[in-house]
Amino acid sequence: MKNLKFNSERIFLITVFTFSFSYLINAQWTNATNTEHTGTAQLNSNSPVLYCNAVFNGGIIVEEANNFRSGLRYSIQDEKWRFRAGKINTYPKMTFNMDSGRLGIGYDDPDEKLHIWEGGAKISTSSTGGSTHGLEWFDLSNKYLGGIFQYGSLMQLKSGSTGDNNRILLSTNDHRAMIFGTNGKVGIGEFLVSGIWQDPAEELEVRGNAMITGELMAASDKKLKTNINDLHGALASINLLRSVDYELLQNEYSDLNLPGGKQYGFLAQEVEEILPDLVKTYTKLGTDIKAINYTQFIPFITAAIQELDNVIMDQRSEMKQQKDLILSLIERIENLENK
182: closest CA among 156, 207, 203, 162? Predict the structure, then answer.
């Protein structure tokens, strides 16, 4: 058996821990005559005992009649100090590994600084507003990294980093995720490219398909607009466009999560030559990617249909005039023949 040496500071610390915990659980402690505790030193008839045996090697342990044990112990199996409270042969209520500085609640061998086994954590506050409550993270230099906060009825997830690291990531794995970029914009899909996180280009960027079961609305109130003009020449512009079908290069641009199968649309470079305001260029994967605002085609298509309808109406008017003229000529011919 190893010889366990206690200096005055350690004995004082152990005694304080054990007396404090014995007060919390309000237990009726056994005396030091328990044969399990070999090598014990009784402090008084109702006090914790300093003991040393082959199982735990040393410590201060307090025990109840129902085998509820608490105290500070040293285990020779892993050579670690643990502050423990719980029934014998069951998972302890709480274990503090003094060697690693880890605290386990309901678990004897915590993996992290705080390890809660089969349970959760709860933060209660009587404040309903005006103050912030939550969890915060700092690095070793006390630099703020971020946190989760409750402010009144508002819940806030905040990143305190700066520059390229100022992002918030929600993910089920390392790739497919929802990301809040350094620019405050939201992205859904694959934004980790070659080990580097990218920022969304718009307020919401989705890399992949999207489905909605409701309506997609765009603000179009007249009071929001100025310099309002009628579209002219829409039919001519539409006639210049080339409609195509195509397949997307999924393998070459896998990080963009492009859809498979046959697609229908236009080529952005060709549209840019005719309707440049409907095309926008983004820098993605180290190259320029052009995108088309297909929604903005609706006014052009509408105006083109109206122009085409006017042409048709004019043609109908001309055809009616020609028909009336023909009918008039036929009537005159018939009248001549009847004379």
Answer: 162
Q: Tell me the per-residue pLDDT of 156-182, one tens digit each, with 9 for 90 and over.
A: 777 776 655 677 777 776 556 788 888
Model pLDDT for residues 94-110, shown as the tens digit of each residue: 777 777 888 888 777 78
What's the rounded Cα separation, in Å, for the pair 248 and 273?
A: 22
- Residues 300/238, Cβ–Cβ less than 8 Å: yes
- Identify the CA nearest to 203 among candidates 221, 226, 180, 225: 180
| Closest to 98 in 3D by CA, of 115, 73, 131, 61 | 73
Q: Which long-range contacts (CB under 8 A, 24 or more apart) does 202-206 make?
A: none
Q: Show the tokens assigned to 295.
A: 């929604």
Six-digit token string for 83: 């502050």
Of the candidate ranges 29-43, 65-79, 105-119, 194-208, the one whose mean pLDDT is the lowest: 29-43
Question: Phi-psi bin for 134: left (phi > 0), alpha (psi -120 to 50), beta?
Answer: left
DSSP calls for 114-157 = EEESS----------SSSEEEEEEE-TT--EEEEEEEETTEEEE
CA distances from 17 to 11, 26, 29, 36, 164 (A): 10, 14, 15, 22, 45
Tell me what the mean pLDDT of segment 277-296 comes to.
90
Q: Is 191 exposed, middle or buried (0-12, 13-18, 19+ CB in 10 A)?
A: buried
> For 199-210, how does the pLDDT look when each residue is reduced to its tens digit (9 = 90+)?
888 888 888 888
Distance CA 70, CA 94 (A): 9
Residue type, 138: F
CATH topology of domain 230-339: Arc Repressor Mutant, subunit A (1.10.10)
Phi and psi at 41, nearest 5°, equal -125, 110
Provide the token pair at 65.
Answer: 């009649």
Listed residue (280, 134, 261, 165) closest to 209, CA to CA: 261
pLDDT at 167: 77
Which contiguous run of DSSP H or E holds residue 292? strand 287-292
Q: How far apart are CA 238 and CA 297, in angstroms?
A: 9
Query: What is the location of CATH 1.10.10 in the chain?
Result: 230-339
